[in-house]
Design goal:
The protein is an alpha+beta fold. The strands form 2 sheets. It has a 3-stranded antiparallel β-sheet, with no helix packed on it. The chain has a two-stranded parallel sheet with strand order 4-5. Helix 1 runs parallel beside helix 3. The protein is globular and about 45 Å long. It starts with a helix and ends with a helix.
Amino acid sequence: DPQDEAAVSAHCGEADVRVRYENGEQRTYLGGEDVTGLIRTGEVSAAASAISKWAAVRRRMVAAQREIAAQADMLIDGRDIGTVIMPDADCKLFVFASAEARARRRFKELTEKGRECTLEEVLRDIEERDKNDREREIAPCVPAEDAVMFDNSELDFDGTVEEALRIIREKTE
């Protein structure tokens, strides 16, 4: 139950979560089972937002994300990567887009996967998660002081990658 802090906190240390890179794609495993497709569902996203504010969950996630980052030089996305997980990163981008743009993207992704939902439901979920992430006490979603702000509301995936690479090259060369 994502509302039961004590139960979730007690179990988060037991969860065997692994991230692997297979054929150039990140895959997430829970107890050896590939759960990559499940972690992007609305239900899991809402639960993640609800539990991410608890100290035990944050400690577990910080350790796991730092372990992943130590594997190799990589691009990492997340709501507190530049402020909490990797504060000493060579280059930090704070990529943002309007809730409406993100809702359109997520709606397209979900409906292409056969999930029945409305754009309004997706937008409401995104706005709720944004509010929770901004207002949580532990590791709120805020840009690092040295982050480059980057609005990709009007860019597609390729345009976002192109602009991000331009910024990274500029900051690291």
